[in-house]
Structure formats: structure tokens, C-alpha cells
Design goal:
single chain; alpha/beta; 10 strands; globular
């Protein structure tokens, strides 16, 4: 089975594939201080605790990380604990099949390239990927599957935290849908501002991107992913598809492009 690992700034998502099917997944916190040995114990513990899987179920690894220190430790994990297993770490020189049409392609996060690959594979171009993570990222893919650029906005949790810190009479709140857009108390007012504000942001940015990507903006598929996507799905009219495992699927595709067996 193929173990895919997507390291984000806040969370790390692991997914285990049997062929093209994801059969198990886990979400853990990203800790840049965690050593390679600690990571290996965590990974093997998650798989070893599964009623069917064992810690020796892995016969391939595909990894991408937005945190350089974690990528360094994961490289050590692959060397020390999975030395006999083919491993692909998404970095410059790895074949993705995605042409990056940016001023400096090396600046683009590996997860965004992987998302673009998966979105084009699943839905075709042109498309826009909206990833609700630590930041909310918008990635544009043209009809040929090229990554043409994107936009980055503060993520939902970052905004909630900032509001609680900088507002004298405000506090951190649960991210939940309020009874109404017109809040009847401070908590509901903050929830309404966050939820409907971000939904409006998504529709606004996506609408402008779609107008640049295609003569008919309706031809542009919009795919949502990321841990906080479910919060906005029902309110952002522009989102066509929700694929929670988009990055993991992209990692599987990159692995297949870079291993001899494929």
C-alpha cells in the first residue's frame, strides 16, 4: 500500500492507498520540533493500531511539506525506517507533469502543485482549487493543465484568532454556523462575519479568476479542499466539487509518475 503524507503548517494529513482507493486516513498536528524517530513512532503507531493494517503494510511513500524542517526529518524517516521502500518527496526535480507558469516556479508550495495535478486529473481544466488551510489559497489551472498562478488570503482560523486577540471585547469562538446572518449576540455576530465573509471572499476571488481563465466562466470547475472546507461549502455558491483528499490523490499521481513500476 502507498502511504501519502501532506504536511501543512498546522496539520499533517496521512492517507493510505490500496491502488486508487484511499482505505484509511489520519490527521495529526504539525510539530516542527518532532524528530525523525518521533515521527516514525507516530506513523507506525497509527498503522499498527488499525484492526486490519499492520505497520509493515507500506510498500511506497509519497510526501509533500510546506514546512522545511519537517521535510528534513521525514527524509530521515524514509532513510532509516523505510529504506527498502520506494519514496517520492515532492521537491524541485520531481516529475509532476504540471507546467508552472510563474515568475519563480520554485516559490510555489509543493502542495499547490500537487493539488493542481489532482484537480486537472479528476475534473479537467480550466479549474480553480480553493484550499481552506492555515491560509486560504486559490490556485488557477488552465485548459491544458498548466498552473498559471493563484491568490493567498489569511485562513479562517488565523482570522478568528486575530479577531480575539485584537478586539478588546471579543474572544475566540467556535467555528460554527450561526442561527442567522444577523447575529443576536457577540458570538453569533462573529460567527456570521467569519462564515459569510469568507463565503463572499471565495465567490469574489473565484469569479474574477474564472473570468480570466475562460471565455465562459461557467466552464471553470471550482474544487474545494482542506480541513475547514465543510464550514463554507453550503454558503459559497461558486464551489462545484468538494474533494477532501485532493492533495493525497495528487501525491499518489506524483508517486506513479516517479517510480519504475508505474
Amino acid at each position: 500500500m502507498l502511504l501519502t503524507i501532506d504536511v501543512g503548517n498546522t496539520h499533517t494529513v496521512l492517507g493510505l492507498f490500496d491502488g486508487e482507493e484511499i482505505v484509511e486516513h489520519w490527521r495529526v498536528s504539525t510539530d516542527p520540533r518532532r524528530t525523525a524517530d518521533e515521527m516514525a513512532v507516530l506513523m507506525q503507531g497509527l498503522m499498527g493500531a488499525h484492526p486490519v493494517l499492520g505497520e509493515d503494510a507500506v510498500d511506497g511513500l509519497a510526501i509533500c511539506s510546506t514546512v522545511p524542517s519537517v521535510l528534513h526529518e521525514l527524509r530521515e524517516v524514509t532513510r532509516r525506517y523505510y529504506g527498502d521502500v520506494p519514496a517520492v518527496l515532492v521537491e524541485p526535480g520531481v516529475k509532476t507533469g504540471v507546467h508552472v507558469l510563474m515568475d519563480n516556479p520554485k516559490e510555489v508550495g509543493a502542495d499547490r502543485i500537487v493539488n493542481a495535478l489532482a484537480a486537472n486529473h479528476l475534473y479537467g481544466g480550466p479549474c480553480v482549487v480553493v484550499d481552506f488551510g492555515t491560509a486560504t489559497t486559490f490556485d488557477a489551472v488552465n485548459e491544458r493543465g498548466d498552473y498559471v498562478g493563484g491568490a493567498i488570503a489569511p485562513g479562517i482560523e488565523i482570522s478568528v484568532d486575530a479577531l480575539g486577540v485584537r478586539g478588546a471585547q471579543l474572544r475566540k469562538i467556535e467555528l460554527a454556523r450561526p442561527r442567522s446572518v444577523i447575529g443576536k449576540n457577540t458570538v453569533e455576530a462573529m460567527q456570521a462575519g467569519i462564515l459569510y465573509g469568507f463565503a463572499g471572499q471565495v465567490d469574489g476571488v473565484v469569479g474574477r479568476m474564472a473570468a480570466e481563465l475562460a471565455t465562459d466562466p461557467d466552464d471553470v470547475q471550482v474544487i474545494a479542499t482542506g480541513g475547514l472546507a465543510p464550514l463554507v461549502l453550503g454558503e459559497a455558491a461558486s464551489i462545484d466539487e468538494h474533494e477532501p483528499w485532493l492533495t493525497l490523490i495528487g501525491l499518489r499521481l506524483v508517486y506513479e509518475r516517479n517510480t519504475p513500476a508505474h
